């Protein structure tokens, strides 16, 4: 009479233990990939670090599969807990987009993307390896399947709010959000070199501003905000210029040094 509940508890316990082992393998793999480099890390190294067998590691994934899982799970966690990934959460971004006329919608969108951009810039070589893997067809990444539509929805939420509050020109926020998302993904996947100029976030910001037909705050103001925001988790989005022609000149004619350097 009691065999079925016992079996359920036993199965649940094994599943929980299996997930704990999986997380330990992924954490060890990430630590070693970042400390030694992807190419220099072997499956045996990961098994030794996680104190499991090589077979247990391979059950979680080979090296490429482990790297994809590490990135995908971090990105998924950031979406699940937007408040932790981006202080103030989505509500803060909406507030920034609907401030009249102090905030540019372009930089409100950049606030949404900032945690992900910083994560990708933590180890550029490893991020380029991840991008190369997910471009292929062998490994399925949740970034494109489940997480992509979620980010598109978040961007669309900001655009809908800006449309309502600022009387922006008539656009379809869902379609525009999709265009912004693919521009963001495209830059991340094709960015090359540890010292790319302009850096990835600047390229994405330029693309977002072009899609929105907006002249955001001067690039130097944006870079100062980005450094402060990601370092401290505080700081409002940079103010937008009232004169569109002046704004375009500021964005396009900033000193080349403004584009240099890695994401903070």
What do these coordinates show?
- With 264 residues, the chain is mostly helical.
- The chain has 2 domains: 1-61, Homeodomain-like (Arc Repressor Mutant, subunit A), CATH 1.10.10; 62-259.
- It is 72% helix and 0% strand.
- The protein is built from 13 helices and no strands.
- The chain has helices spanning 3-36, 43-50, 54-60, 63-80, 82-85, 89-98, 105-122, 124-135, 142-166, 173-190, 200-212, 219-232, 244-252.
- The longest helix has 34 residues, at 3-36.
- The radius of gyration is 21 Å and the shape is elongated.
- Mean pLDDT is 75; it is low at 239-264.
Quick rundown:
With 264 residues, this protein is mainly alpha-helical. It has 13 helices and no strands. The longest helix has 34 residues, at 3-36.
The arrangement of helices and strands along the chain is: HHHHHHHHHHHHH
Portion of residues within helices:
over 70%
Structural class assignment: mainly alpha
Q: What would you call the shape?
A: elongated
Q: What is the residue-mean pLDDT, rounded to a whole number?
A: 75
Tell me the span between the first and last alpha carbons.
61 Å
| Number of distinct helices | 13
How would you characterize the largest beta sheet? Answer: none
Poorly predicted runs of 5 or more residues: 239-264
Proportion in β-strands: under 5%
Please give the radius of gyration in angstroms: 21 Å
Domain unit count: 2
Question: How many strands?
Answer: 0
């Amino acid at each position: 009479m009691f065999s079925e509940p016992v079996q359920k508890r036993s199965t649940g316990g094994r599943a929980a233990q299996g997930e704990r082992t999986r997380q330990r393998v992924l954490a060890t793999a990430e630590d070693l990939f970042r400390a030694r480099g992807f190419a220099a890390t072997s499956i045996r190294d990961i098994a030794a670090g996680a104190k499991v067998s090589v077979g247990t590691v391979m059950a979680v994934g080979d090296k490429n599969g482990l790297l994809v899982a590490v990135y995908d799970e971090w990105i998924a966690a950031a979406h699940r807990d937007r408040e932790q990934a981006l202080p103030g959460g989505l509500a803060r971004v909406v507030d920034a987009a609907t401030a009249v006329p102090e905030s540019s919608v372009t930089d409100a969108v950049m606030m949404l993307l900032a945690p992900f951009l910083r994560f990708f810039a933590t180890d550029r070589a490893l991020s380029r390896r991840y991008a190369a893997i997910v471009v292929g067809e062998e490994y399925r990444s949740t970034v494109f399947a489940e997480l992509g539509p979620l980010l598109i929805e978040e961007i669309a939420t900001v655009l809908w709010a800006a449309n309502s509050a600022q009387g922006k020109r008539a656009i379809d926020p869902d379609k525009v959000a999709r265009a912004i998302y693919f521009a963001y993904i495209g830059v991340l996947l094709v960015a090359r070199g540890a010292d790319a100029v302009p850096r990835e976030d600047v390229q994405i910001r330029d693309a977002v501003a072009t899609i929105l037909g907006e002249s955001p705050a001067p690039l130097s103001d944006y870079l100062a905000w980005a450094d402060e925001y990601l370092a401290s988790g505080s700081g409002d989005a940079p103010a937008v210029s009232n004169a569109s022609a002046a704004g375009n000149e500021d964005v396009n004619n900033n000193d080349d040094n403004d584009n240099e350097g890695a994401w903070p």
